[in-house]
Amino acid sequence: MELVGQMDVAVITKVYPSRSHSGAAQGGVAAALGNVDGDSVEAHIYDTVKGADYLGDQDAIEILCNDAPRTIYEMEHLGCPFSRTEDHKINQRAFGGHSFLRACFSADRTGHALLHTLVEQTYKQGGKLKVYSEWHMNRLIVEDGVCRGVVAMDIKTGRLEVFRAKAVLFASGGYGQAFKITSNAAANTGDGIVAAYRAGIPLQDMEFVQFHPTGLYQHGILLTEGARGEGGYLINADGDRFMSTYAPSKMELGPRDIVSRSEQTEINEGRGAGPNKEYVLLDLRHLGKEKIMERLPQVYNLAKDFIGVDCIEDPVPIQPTAHYSMGGIPADNDCQVYLDDKGQQVTGFFVAGECSCISVHGANRLGTNSLLEALVFGRRAGKKMLDVTPGLKLADVNEERELEAAKKEIATLYAGDGSEDLSVIREELKEIMTYKVGVYRCADDMLQARSEIKGLRERFAKVQVKDPGTNFNLNLIDALELSNMLEYSELIVSGGLAREESRGAHFRTDFPTRDDQNWMHHTMAFRTEDGGHELRYKPVTVTRFQPEERKY
Amino acid sequence: MASKVTMRIQRFDPAVDEKPHDQDFEIELPAGITILKALNKVRAEKDPTLALRYSCGSAICGSCAMKVNGHARLACKTQVSDCTVDGVLRIAPMGNLKILRDLVVDMDPFFDSLGKAKPYLEAGNGSVPEFERKQRPEEFLQIDPSTTCILCAACYSDCNVLEVDDNFFGPATLAKAHRFIFDSRDVDTQARLRAVSKKTGVWDCTHCGECSTRCPTETKPLERIEEIRTKAMADGFHDNVGARHALGFRETVGKRGILDENYLPARSMGFFNLPGLLSLVPIGLRMMMRGKNPPLIPHKIDKLEEVKKTFARFEELRK
Ligand SMILES: Cc1cc2nc3c(=O)[nH]c(=O)nc-3n(C[C@H](O)[C@H](O)[C@H](O)COP(=O)(O)OP(=O)(O)OC[C@H]3O[C@@H](n4cnc5c(N)ncnc54)[C@H](O)[C@@H]3O)c2cc1C
What would the mean pLDDT of A143-165 be, rounded to a whole number? Predict the structure, then answer.
């Protein structure tokens, strides 16, 4: 939006814009408006730094929180519907790890409201913005430190095209699909981060994956944290509110990593509910029908439609679910991407949203800070692009060569001998990631995971795409996506193995405490010539808050 | 408990097929499985070439609407067990949109049609975003249903009017119009009402209710269309066929206790709308040839006074 009308702008997306996974965000978007209590930007900054377990870059966090109120007002002015207070202001609710009522919300479909408001703006821009819906970006073109465009495939026809550009922005979302139990959309296969990685850009803090405490049992579908914000309880098989053992002051509203681990401990120690003691329960019964239907209608419907539980009458079976990708493509506070751990940058390449690692979330994102991040940094990226792009020239691209490379990648996926099955490999990967690189991690599990994933990559070479078609060839897209998932899953495991401490969402049973002496560093994974990788580290930016013990 | 189900899936690949055909897949499905998961199981175990759209898997992105046993539904939130009849589950692409391949239809006409509703807030001048604008909780609740729309197009697929007239705004577009007409922050209400009152707008809906029945959210387009009509009438948008039709309906029933079928078409078209009236002539002639014209002098009903009284009370209540 910052660029339309001033430059020739195109949006490429593999789903229609309104289908993007932002629409699934339920609970809210953070901003210290202070509409219902005495919140302050200062408090928002501190909560975010602490929530990130001190791995967030504090200068970026200050930008995020300072710009939050303006961002919300802007969205309101664009038409976003927000739930309101009795005095007609934007209403705010409690959210885990935030010490004030800070989450602005639109019932329990905040992401949907924000996303649709932005999609509406594309209609307002009319012909000035070209949207390529259902085009799959296959490759990022970077040469000599200059970003030159992308290669993308029209899903409707299979046609490959080079999109040359002076500047490229990736807002390609998270990578939660590598897990079996996940709240992420099928589209969240980390395509953007892997394309950048393959183009020679390092990936940062990939080992940090947030597990959300309230995934619908077996489905992983998210029940918003707003359910606890509104007063829902977490109980075990005995009906005890077990959070009193783990976070006595915040109880159910402790930060996500702590609540997820508490649930997993309850399950591991035999206090889980259900025939196999595999889940705990989210109890909303005491909220009453009226509050549930007004504030949490989506939670009601999801529980009802997907597992047949009426949450007005019964508690809902839940388990931790892979939810948010803290890691991603490293960039500065204006979203311009880093090429190495020394501060060198890629000319003309920007990132924003979940695929980026700026890093405002550090080791653990606070709920509602990520929609905020996408909005704040998306705008900053736009402004920066407006600033620098006129000074850039349209860089040369050897289109022929790029198209050939993309074609070759596809041809390889058809060349397997067919003795291995794509969906089998995918399921195995997901199991490995959830059970060995999940809520609790240890060296033994991760070493196993590493060699198993290596095995899967070898087997993947034998997979053969069976669909020869060119239009809506899902089989081919599945293969492209799985290839990405295998590539970045290795980095999650490597980063996790190397990081011998527990911080935020990364918890090692063999190194259960945080180690500020050795690990106040961001992990940077570089791809090596042979397709392997090398880890380097860079320090965290600390401005005001020195690491303290993180207690809730 | 697993059970064997025959998934009867409509297939079509324009590269090889002349027209769509059904293909049966016998497949073992666990209890509690959704249609989307079952379709992905077919892809994994039986036929990787099956094309469909899906993404979030949690009924919010709107990608996976398709016909299940002849009616549009979201595959991700529909249980196989709720729809299997005699062991068979029928799956086909949405209606009213061109099939691109298997269960994938061309969504462009749908997304383009939204443009007719001018689908963005007109905030007027002087809205410098220093603070939020005020809105009462009741005002938010007024647009709450229409803002739940996920643009899945299930309503578009099953709309009976769109089947015969693709100029019709369509249920989703009208729900989108509602979302702004009833937004207390929008300054363009009257222009919006005028636009949807025209031909192909709210009055072209035939009240069949398919849209609301198929809608997987709280949008329920028919209800929204009715709310728009009521507001358009209240705000004086009477100078169009639909409004005149509704008013004429009330007049004739109020006066005679029955519908005067000779009066109504002319009243709806407008008595001085010569081209409009002439456009009725061919259909009038055709009806005459088939002996379907209403009698020139409408027959009288028995308890006219009672009807009139009821009607008068109703009018009183309405005020
Ligand atoms: C269930 C759920 C609930 C959440 N709730 C909240 C909440 O309450 N508050 C909060 O702050 N955060 C929440 N989050 C997190 C938040 O929604 C996301 O972090 C954020 O929306 C990500 O936005 P994005 O723009 O970065 O990516 P997305 O919205 O995921 O968009 C990614 C885009 O990239 C495109 N893309 C990806 N790969 C390709 C490719 N190869 N070619 C072309 N296009 C491609 C996709 O088509 C899509 O349009 C939630 C997340 C989930 C999963």
Answer: 97
Residue A164: beta bridge partners?
Answer: A149
**In the predicted structure, residue A457 carries a pLDDT above the cut 70:** yes
* Chain centre distance of CA B162: 8
Asked whether residue B301 is assigned to any structural domain, the reply reads: yes
Tell me which residue of A49, A54, A51 sits closest to A364, measured CA to CA: A51
Q: Report the relative pairing of strands A356-357 and A345-351 from DSSP bridges.
A: unpaired
Spatial distance between the Cα atoms of A391 and A388, rounded to a whole number of angstroms: 6
- Report residue B53 as tokens: 């759209």
Structural domain of B89:
3-105
- Considering chain A, what is the average pLDDT of its residues? 95
State how many domains chain B has: 3
- Please indicate, yes or no, whether residues B166 and B86 belong to a single structural domain of this protein: no
Residues B121 and B220 both lie in one domain: yes
pLDDT at B251: 82
A112 has a chain B CB within 8 A of its CB? yes
Q: Which residue, of B169, B202, B234, is where some domain finishes?
A: B234
Q: Is residue B197 part of a domain?
A: yes
Q: Looking at A256, A379, A380, A503, which residue is catalytic?
A: A256
Tell me if B110 is assigned to some domain: no
Where do runs of H (alpha helix) occur along chain B? Answer: 35-45, 80-83, 108-114, 137-143, 154-158, 160-164, 171-181, 189-197, 210-214, 221-234, 241-256, 263-269, 274-289, 304-318
pLDDT: which is higher, B137 or A308 = B137
CATH for B17: 3.10.20.30
Contact state of A471 with B14 under an 8 Å Cβ cutoff: yes
Instruction: Tell me if residue A256 is catalytic.
Output: yes
Tally Cβ neighbours within 10 Å of residue B152: 30
Cβ neighbors of B280 (< 8 A, separation 6 or more) are: B265, B266, B269
- B137 and B44 co-located in one domain: no
Residue whose pair of structure tokens reads 């009438």 in the numeric block? B233
Same domain as B250, residue B209: no
d(CA B31, CA B10): 24
Substitution site in A371, A373, A484 for ligand 1 pocket (most atoms within 8 Å of beta carbon): A371
Q: Phi and psi of A29, rounded to 5°?
A: -135, 130
Each as own residue / partner, the long-range contacts of residues B46-49 (CB below 8 Å, 24 or more positions apart, any chain) are B48/A422, B48/A465, B48/A466, B48/A467, B48/A474, B48/A475, B48/A478, B49/A466, B49/A467, B49/A469, B49/A473, B49/A475, B49/B13
Residue with more model confidence, A182 or A254: A182
Q: Is this model's pTM higher than 0.80 or not?
A: yes
**DSSP state string for A31-71:** ----SSS---HHHHHHHHHHHTTT-S-HHHHHHHHHTHHHH
Residue spans of chain B under pLDDT 70: 1, 125-128
Residue B65 placed within a domain: yes
- Kindly state whether residues B285 and B255 are assigned to the same domain: yes
Q: What is the mean pLDDT of residues A525-552?
A: 93
Same domain, B256 and B181: no
**B211 and B290: one domain?**
no
By the 8 A CB rule, do B102 and B93 touch? yes
> Of the candidates B80, B105, B130, which is a domain's last residue?
B105
Residue A364, helix vs strand vs coil? coil
Is A272 in contact with A236 (CB distance < 8 Å)? yes
Question: Can you give the CATH number for the domain in which B157 is found?
Answer: 1.10.1060.10
Largest CA distance in chain B: 70
How buried is A405 (Cβ within 10 angstroms: 0-12 exposed, 13-18 middle, 19+ buried)? middle
State whether residue A434 is helix, strand or coil: helix
Q: State the sign of the Cα–Cα–Cα–Cα dihedral A416, A418, A421, A422.
A: positive
The span from the CA of B231 to the CA of A121, in Å, is 26
Question: How high is the pLDDT of residue B126?
Answer: 60
Q: Name every protein residue with a CB atom under 6 angstroms from any ligand 1 atom.
A: A 12-15, 20-22, 24-29, 110-111, 136-137, 171-174, 183-184, 187, 191-192, 222, 323-324, 353-355, 367-372, 374
The helix/strand/coil state of A211 is strand
